[in-house]
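[audit] Reproducing an earlier prediction to check determinism. Same input, same settings, fresh worker. If the tokens differ from the archived copy the diff job will pick it up downstream; this log only records the rerun itself.
[audit] input (150 residues):
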Amino acid sequence: MSIDPSQGAAQGPSQASSATVRGNPMRQAVRTDKAPPPLPFFEQAIICQGMVYCSGQVGVSPVTKQLVDGGVGDRTAQALNNLSAVLEAAGSSLRNVVECNVFLSDMTNFAAMNRVYDTFFERPKPCRTCVAVKELPLKTDVELKCIAHL
């Protein structure tokens, strides 16, 4: 499955920079073409009062706009790479994540997701919630969102 840019998702800027931060000083939108484009209903992230609030990311390649092949571990890695790209566009990084929320379509994927997740974060690890949900976008098996400081 793929993300359909014709549904109104904005494309990345055409200049050499692949990231933009726009908005008022209290709420700045973040957008990068190094992560899949968001649908028109939300931003990839919002910067507010020194914090970066990232929208959920699934394991979609920003190049192909397709879910990556493989298992939940492969899609966890891609989702975290996408979050990393958004955080970097905001001027932050995965090292600054204070909270992460993980959504799984099946809790039997918990261990496989954790094996990959653990490789992306240093100690102290961010606070985290992991829940099973009935269904995720694009019929994927994992989605992650996070909050980080600048």
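[audit] rerun output stored. Observation attached for the diff report: The chain is about 20% helix and 30% strand.
[audit] end
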